[in-house]
Amino acid sequence: MDLIDKKIICALDENCRKPISQLAHELRISRSIASYRIKNLEEKGIISKYICSISLGLLGYKTYKIYFKVQTSAENQEREFINFLVNNNHVIHCLKTEGSFDYSAVVAVKNVLELDNFISEIKTRFTNILKDYAITIVVYTKIYKLNKLLLKHKERSLKIDKYSGEENYQDIDEKDKKIIHILSQKSNISILEIAEKTNLSIDVVKYRLKKLTGTIINSFRAIFNLNKLGYYHYVLLLKMRQATKKDEENLLAWCASKENVLYSTKRIGYFDFEINAAITDINDLNDFLSEFKKKFPNIIDSYELIINSQLLKLNYVPF
């Protein structure tokens, strides 16, 4: 990849619904070059799909992240376990991981009873292969733009700064749900295509999409294959001692300053903090961990490390 490819990726990471003509103008390239480059990135598998993310709290959902450890020797049962996670509407994000855990899943539920039913079904159906699991609740998440990694831009690199909390719930009807369902897996399609797929008029789609954007829908972005960008996606799962607010601020400032930190999340539960980083090789990993441990020797009780090896599902729509 050259600099133009990297700039296109960063632009699509911020807003993949931006018209190609506008994107080309901002990057000072022709529209035909922009179209060709995007198509090339898609064909190479660097861009895997285009999604929209949803403010699920506004719709009455709470999200939990669950890490699973399984008996990987039971191949047929493991395949059934994967199919269960991928096809379950509550699961909005599912990854195959390597390391301390074998899978991770983000689950969206309306209440704790739904979460309990979900866990109970897994424990009942997969008792022979489920070795252990850990649940955490998100307090806040800080997601950084890819320009921090690819273009070394550290200023204004924060893309999403999301805090969990009580939300002012909003109602959406079936027409809104149709639009969201389509955009959830193909968020770069035109207004005309949305209208055709939903059997709604163009004016209705325009009006409703404008109303949804910035409230229920909080981003339109492309999903990229980090491996094909030359990186491995490592996740540092932290158990912290009684850290002060100042310690927490220092940890967040360090994450913001590191160009390869993709996002960081404070959690309640089995782990207290999660740092996601793009790592090139074992030497890069050793340097990253060494700097981290030297920087925060007094607030980290222990940590576990996993690699996100395969994206199995990403669909922010649980309905």
Give a short synopsis of this structure.
With 319 residues, the chain is an alpha+beta fold. The protein contains eleven helices and eleven strands.
Second CATH tier, the architecture of the largest domain: 2-Layer Sandwich
Largest sheet: 8 strands, antiparallel, barrel
Strand order of the largest sheet: 2-4-3-11-8-10-9-5
Which structural class best describes the helix and strand composition?
Answer: alpha+beta
Q: Kindly, what is the distance between the CA atoms of the first and last residues, rounded to a whole number of angstroms?
A: 38 Å
Content of β-strand? 25-35%
Give the total of domains.
4
* CATH C-level category of the largest domain: Alpha Beta
Shape: globular
Low-confidence stretches: none
SSE order: HHHEEHEEHEHEHHHEEHEEHE
Figure out the total of helices: 11
Number of strands: 11
What is the gyration radius calculated from CA atoms?
20 Å
- Would you give the CATH topology of the largest domain? Alpha-Beta Plaits
**What is the CATH homology-level superfamily of the largest domain?**
Lrp/AsnC effector binding domain/regulation of amino acid metabolism (RAM) domain
Folded structure, characterized:
With 319 residues, this protein is an alpha+beta fold. The chain folds into four domains: 1-44, Winged helix-like DNA-binding domain superfamily/Winged helix DNA-binding domain (Arc Repressor Mutant, subunit A); 56-138, 2-Layer Sandwich (Alpha-Beta Plaits), CATH 3.30.70.920; 140-165 and 227-310, Lrp/AsnC effector binding domain/regulation of amino acid metabolism (RAM) domain (Alpha-Beta Plaits); 171-214, Winged helix-like DNA-binding domain superfamily/Winged helix DNA-binding domain (Arc Repressor Mutant, subunit A), CATH 1.10.10.10. It is 38% helix and 32% strand. The protein has eleven helices and eleven strands. The strands form two sheets. An eight-stranded antiparallel β-barrel has the order 2-4-3-11-8-10-9-5, surrounded by four helices. A two-stranded antiparallel ribbon has the order 1-7. Strand 9 and strand 10 (273-279) form a beta hairpin. The radius of gyration is 20 Å and the shape is globular.
